[in-house]
């Protein structure tokens, strides 16, 4: 009888541990989903910023062309064209940096998706294991109850003797 109690206690402990691990994995999945959402928002923000920068680059390139046409009129126009050229170069570098950041974020997002899928599979496996342990526990409880009933019947018969 002590063995059954010990086994039941062990099964309960394993079931509790499995449930705790399942909760832990659910929390990890939720955290990864939150990170995923944040990364997507950051990508959207960077994409918008990149579009704004590209529009500004196009506008500045148009201005540079206009200034280059007027450059023959004076040295001051040439200086302004150089300044605009430097601004274009800086903006192009910023655009390249934004593109690089977007690529990195996309890679991180992909990795997060892979990790999330992995943890979801682990959670499903743990939930299945938990269900199996619960089923086994219920079977053991039923066997225990049946054994108790048989013991009571046997004690009743021994008492009648």
From TrEMBL:
Q: Where is this region: Disordered?
A: 1-21
UniProt keywords, alphabetically? Coiled coil
Which named protein is this? Putative tropomyosin
Per its UniProt record, what Gene3D superfamilies does this chain match? 1.20.5.170, 1.20.5.340
Q: Which domain of life is it from?
A: Eukaryota
